[in-house]
C-alpha cells in the first residue's frame, strides 16, 4: 500500500461517516416533507437525487483531475469569473465550518460539558483542527480512516443496542399519508444537506486509483443513505413520530434510553464523543478546503500563516455567534440556508461550468493537448 | 541548525503537553460530589396555584454502613415552591445547602390534584432538562399529594425512592399495573386523539407484624392500578384486573395471575375432602394479541384475538386434572375470566373515560388510512360506540408437580 496516496476505502469511510455526523446529529430529515413515518423512504430516495445533483461536479473533476476546484473554474470560466466564484467557494467553506463548529459546541454543551464556556470548547476544537489541517490531505485521510472506522462501528452498535426500545409498528402505514410529490420534494431537499462530496473532489488528485472516483461516490452515498435511513427509522420507532420531532437531538435521546442489560446503560457519552471525533475531523477538512480555495484565489503558495489566520478567524466568529445566538438547528431557516448554499456550490455553479465546458470543449481540449 | 530546530520543536511540544496537563485537569465548572444534593425521587404538587417540588435527596452522612442509621435517615426531603417548575426547583437552594442533581432521579410523582388540573404545563422541564433521566418512571399519587406517598420505605432498599423504584420496576412480575418511563410517557402523550396511562402509587396501611416495633400499623406503597389521562388531565383509574385486560389488549402482558372458578360439574363430589375452595390460579407467562378492524355495514368493528399460555399454580376446588377433559374446561374458564378483564377495560375506556387509551386510533390509521383521514377529528366520538369482539384462547402448559390436589382423595387405579 502506498502511504503517499489515498485509498478508495479511506474515502468511502470518510464520506459515509462525515455525512452521518451531520444528518444524525439533529436529524433534520424528520422535519423535511413528508415528516411522518415515511421519512426513511424519502431518505432512501434521496440517494438517486444525490447522485444526479453531484454529476456536474464529479464530471468536471473527472475531466480535470489534476486541478483544484478554483483552478478548474478559472480554466473553464476564465480568470476573473473563476476567481470570483473561487472566492465565494472559500467563503462558503469557511461559513460551513463555522456552522458545524457551533453545532458541535451546542451538542457538547448540552450533554457532557454543560458548564464549560463556549470559548474553551471552540478554542480547543480550533487548535485541534489547525493541527490536523496543518498536515497534508493525504495524512488527514489516513488519520481519518482510523477515527471514522471506530466511529462508524460505534454508531452501528448504538443503533443495535437501542433496538429493544423500537416499536416498528409506528412506521406503519407505509406510503399512505405521503404523496409522491412530498417524498420527492423531501428527497431533493435532503440530498442538498450533505456537502461531503467536496472531500472526494479535493482528495481525488491523491487517489491511488483515480478511475474509482464515481465508484467511491456511489458506494459512500449508498452506505450513508442506508445507515441514515435506519438511524432515522429506529429513532422514530423508539421515541414516537412526534416526540422525535420535538427533540433537538433525537438520536442523542435514542442513545440515552439504551438500557441493554446493566452493562450498557447511559452510554450516550459514547455517541457524543464519537460524534465530536467525527465532527472535529469534518471541521478540520472544511477549514482546510477554505484555506485551499483562498490560497488559489490569491495565488499564494502553501502558507501555514494563512491557514492559522483562517482558523483563528473562524474560531473568533464561531465564539461570537455561539455566545450571542442560540441556533436551534432544526429551524427551517438554518436548513433552508444550508440547502440553498449546497445547491449553489455543489450543483448550480458546477452545472454552469459544465455547460460552459461543453461550449468551449474544443478549445479547452486543444489547450490541454498543447499543455501536455 | 536542523537538529537545533527539531530540539526546540520537541521542547515546545513538551511544554504544550505539560501546560495542557496542568490546566485541563477537568471540565471548567465541574461540580464536586460533596457539593451536590443527589436526587433519587421527585414529587410535583399544586397548592394555591403554586408548584411544589419535593425532592428526595441522598444524605451522604448516613451511608448504608453507618451505625445507628435507619433507612429513613438515609435521605432528606427538600421542598421548593414557585410559579413554574424551574423556579420551584431552583428555590430549593434557598433552604438547602446543596445544588440538586437529577441524573439519579428514577421516579417522578404527580400529586392527584395537579394531575387532574393537567400536567401539560409542568412536563416541559422534564423533557428539556439534560440532567433528567429519560428512563425515570412517571407516576400519579392515587388520592394523595405526591409528598404524601414519598418518604415511605417498607422494603429492604436503602431509601424510600429506591424502594418505590424497585416496586415500579417489578411490574414485570405483576401486570396489575403498568410502569411508563419518561420517554414512553411522551411517546403516548404526543399521540393525537388518544389518551394515555401512567402508573400509580398509593400508601396503604397494614398491620405491623414485627413485635419489636411499638406501632400497630405500618404504611406500605402499592402500585396496583393505573392512571388514565385524556388530553393532559387525569380522568380516572383502571383497576388491577382492568390493567391485566389492558395489557392483554395492547399485547404487552408479561406476567399475570388469573384466578377463575371452574364449573361445579367437574368436581368429583364422592372423593372430595374439602369443599371450601372455589378457585384456581393460572400464571400467564406468554401471550400474543392480534388486533384487527373490519368495516361491517360501514361501521368499524374491532376484533381482539388473544392466545396465552400459562402454568397452573394452584387449585383449591378439588379438581382432578388427570381426568380427561378437566384441563380443557379449566382453560375455557380461565379464558372467560381473561376475556372479562379485557371487556371491563374496554368498557371503562369507552363509556367512562371516553378516551382511547388502547391505541385503537393508531390501528384504524394503519388499516384504513383513508378512512382515518376522514374520522380522526371525530375519533373520540366514534371510539365510545365502537363495536368489538374479544376472543381468548388459553392453554395450560404446565400443571406443576401435582396431578390431583390435596383436598381430593385419589381414585382407584385405572
Question: Can you describe this structure?
Answer:
The complex is a heterodimer of chains A (372) and B (414). Chain A has 372 residues and is mainly α. Chain A has a single domain, classed as Up-down Bundle (Amino acid/polyamine transporter I). Chain A has 16 helices and two strands. In chain A, strands 1-2 form a two-stranded antiparallel ribbon. Chain A is globular and about 65 Å long. With 414 residues, chain B is α/β, with parallel strands linked by helices. Chain B folds into two domains: 34-238, no CATH class; 240-414, 2-Layer Sandwich (GMP Synthetase, Chain A, domain 3), CATH 3.30.300. Helices cover 29% and strands 30% of the residues of chain B. Chain B has helices at residues 2-23, 85-91, 112-117, 124-128, 146-149, 160-169, 182-189, 240-249, 326-352, 360-367, 369-375, 379-383; strands at residues 36-47, 50-58, 75-82, 99-101, 107-110, 137-141, 180-181, 196-207, 217-222, 226-230, 233-238, 256-261, 279-296, 299-315, 387-398. In chain B, the strands form two sheets. In chain B, strands 1, 2, 3, 4, 5, 6, 7, 8, 9, 10 and 11 form an eleven-stranded mixed β-sheet that branches. In chain B, strands 12-13-14-15 form a four-stranded mixed β-sheet, with helices on both faces. The radius of gyration of chain B is 28 Å and the shape is globular. The model of chain B has no long low-confidence stretch (mean pLDDT 88). The A-B interface holds A 110-111, 113-117, 120, 165, 169, 172-173, 176-177, 238-243, 246-247, 253, 256-257, 259, 265 and B 27-31, 127, 130, 133-135, 181, 183, 186-188, 190-192, 362, 365-367, 369-370.
Order of helices and strands of chain B: HEEEHEEHHEHHEHEEEEHEEEHHHHE
What structural category do the secondary elements of chain A indicate? Answer: mainly alpha
Radius of gyration of chain B equals 28 Å
- Helical run tally of chain A: 16
Helix content of chain B: 25-40%
Tell me about the largest β-sheet of chain A: 2 strands, antiparallel
Order of helices and strands of chain A: HHHHHHHHHHHHEEHHHH
Amino acid at each position: 500500500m502506498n502511504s503517499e496516496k489515498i485509498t478508495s476505502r479511506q474515502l468511502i469511510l470518510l464520506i459515509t461517516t462525515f455525512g452521518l455526523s451531520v444528518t444524525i446529529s439533529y436529524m433534520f430529515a424528520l422535519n423535511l416533507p413528508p415528516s411522518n413515518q415515511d421519512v426513511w423512504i424519502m431518505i432512501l430516495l434521496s440517494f438517486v437525487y444525490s447522485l444526479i445533483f453531484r454529476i456536474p461536479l464529479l464530471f468536471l473533476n473527472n475531466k480535470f483531475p489534476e486541478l483544484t476546484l478554483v483552478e478548474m473554474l478559472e480554466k473553464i470560466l476564465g480568470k476573473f469569473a473563476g476567481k470570483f466564484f473561487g472566492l465565494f467557494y472559500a467563503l462558503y467553506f469557511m461559513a460551513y465550518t463555522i456552522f458545524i463548529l457551533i453545532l458541535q459546541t451546542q451538542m457538547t454543551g448540552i450533554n457532557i460539558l454543560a458548564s464549560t464556556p463556549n470559548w474553551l470548547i471552540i478554542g480547543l476544537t480550533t487548535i485541534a483542527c489547525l493541527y490536523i489541517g496543518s498536515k497534508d490531505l493525504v495524512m488527514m485521510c489516513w488519520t481519518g480512516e482510523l477515527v471514522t472506522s471506530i466511529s462508524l462501528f460505534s454508531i452501528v452498535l448504538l443503533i443495535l443496542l437501542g433496538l429493544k426500545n423500537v416499536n416498528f409498528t409506528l412506521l406503519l402505514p407505509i406510503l399512505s399519508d405521503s404523496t409522491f410529490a412530498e417524498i420527492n420534494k423531501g428527497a431533493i431537499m435532503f440530498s442538498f444537506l450533505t456537502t461531503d462530496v467536496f472531500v472526494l473532489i479535493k482528495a481525488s488528485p491523491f487517489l491511488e486509483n483515480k478511475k474509482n472516483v464515481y465508484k467511491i461516490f456511489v458506494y459512500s452515498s449508498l452506505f450513508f443513505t442506508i445507515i441514515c435511513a435506519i438511524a432515522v427509522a429506529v429513532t422514530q420507532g423508539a421515541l414516537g413520530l412526534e416526540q422525535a420531532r420535538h427533540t433537538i437531538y433525537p438520536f442523542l435521546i435514542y442513545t440515552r434510553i439504551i438500557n441493554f442489560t446493566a452493562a450498557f446503560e447511559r452510554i450516550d457519552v459514547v455517541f457524543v464523543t464519537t460524534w465530536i471525533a467525527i465532527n472535529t475531523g469534518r471541521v478540520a477538512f472544511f477549514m482546510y478546503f477554505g484555506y485551499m480555495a483562498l490560497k488559489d484565489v490569491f495565488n499564494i503558495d502553501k502558507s501555514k500563516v494563512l491557514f492559522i489566520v483562517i482558523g483563528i478567524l473562524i474560531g473568533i466568529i464561531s465564539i461570537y455567534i455561539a455566545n450571542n445566538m442560540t441556533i436551534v438547528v432544526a429551524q427551517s431557516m438554518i436548513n433552508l440556508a444550508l440547502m440553498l448554499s449546497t445547491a449553489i456550490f455543489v450543483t448550480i455553479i458546477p452545472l454552469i461550468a459544465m455547460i460552459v465546458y461543453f461550449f468551449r470543449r474544443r478549445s479547452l481540449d486543444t489547450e490541454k493537448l498543447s499543455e501536455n | 541548525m536542523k537538529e537545533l530546530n527539531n530540539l526546540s520543536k520537541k521542547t515546545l511540544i513538551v511544554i504544550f503537553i505539560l501546560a495542557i496537563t496542568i490546566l485541563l485537569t477537568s471540565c471548567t465548572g465541574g461540580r464536586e460530589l460533596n457539593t451536590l444534593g443527589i436526587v433519587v425521587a421527585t414529587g410535583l404538587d399544586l397548592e394555591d396555584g403554586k408548584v411544589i417540588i419535593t425532592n428526595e435527596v441522598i444524605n451522604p452522612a448516613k451511608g448504608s454502613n453507618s451505625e445507628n442509621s435507619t433507612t429513613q435517615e438515609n435521605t432528606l426531603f427538600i421542598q421548593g415552591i414557585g410559579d413554574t417548575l424551574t423556579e420551584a426547583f431552583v428555590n430549593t437552594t434557598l433552604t438547602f445547602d446543596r445544588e440538586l442533581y437529577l441524573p439519579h432521579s428514577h421516579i417522578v410523582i404527580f400529586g392527584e390534584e395537579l394531575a387532574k388540573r393537567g400536567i401539560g404545563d409542568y412536563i416541559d422541564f422534564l423533557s428539556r432538562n439534560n440532567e433528567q433521566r429519560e428512563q425515570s418512571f412517571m407516576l400519579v399519587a392515587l388520592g394523595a399529594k405526591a409528598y404524601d406517598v414519598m418518604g415511605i420505605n417498607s422494603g429492604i432498599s436503602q431509601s424510600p425512592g429506591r424502594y418505590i423504584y424497585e416496586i415500579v420496576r417489578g411490574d414485570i412480575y405483576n401486570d396489575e399495573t403498568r410502569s411508563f418511563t419518561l420517554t414512553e410517557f411522551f411517546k403516548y402523550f404526543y399521540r393525537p386523539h388518544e389518551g394515555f396511562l401512567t402508573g400509580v402509587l398509593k400508601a396503604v396501611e397494614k398491620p405491623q407484624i414485627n413485635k419489636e416495633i411499638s406501632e400497630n400499623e405500618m404504611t406500605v406503597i402499592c402500585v396496583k392500578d393505573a392512571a388514565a389521562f385524556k388530553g393532559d388531565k387525569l380522568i380516572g383509574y383502571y383497576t388491577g384486573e382492568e390493567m391485566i385486560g389492558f395489557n392483554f389488549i395492547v399485547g404487552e402482558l408479561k406476567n399475570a395471575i388469573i384466578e377463575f372458578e371452574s364449573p361445579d360439574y367437574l368436581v368429583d363430589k364422592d372423593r372430595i375432602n374439602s369443599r371450601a375452595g372455589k378457585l384456581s390460579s393460572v400464571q400467564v407467562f406468554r401471550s400474543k394479541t392480534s388486533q384487527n378492524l373490519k368495516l361491517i355495514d360501514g361501521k368499524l368493528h374491532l376484533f381482539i384475538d388473544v392466545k396465552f399460555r400459562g402454568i397452573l399454580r394452584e387449585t383449591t376446588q378439588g379438581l382432578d386434572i388427570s381426568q380427561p377433559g378437566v384441563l380443557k374446561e379449566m382453560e375455557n374458564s380461565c379464558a372467560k375470566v381473561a376475556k372479562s378483564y379485557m371487556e371491563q377495560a374496554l368498557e371503562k375506556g369507552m363509556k367512562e373515560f371516553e378516551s382511547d387509551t388502547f391505541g385503537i386510533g393508531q390501528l384504524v390509521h394503519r388499516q384504513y388510512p383513508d378512512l382515518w383521514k376522514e374520522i380522526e377529528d371525530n375519533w373520540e366520538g366514534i371510539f365510545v360506540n365502537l363495536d368489538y369482539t374479544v376472543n381468548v384462547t388459553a392453554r395450560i402448559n404446565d400443571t406443576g408437580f401435582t396431578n390431583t390436589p390435596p383436598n381430593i382423595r385419589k381414585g382407584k387405579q385405572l
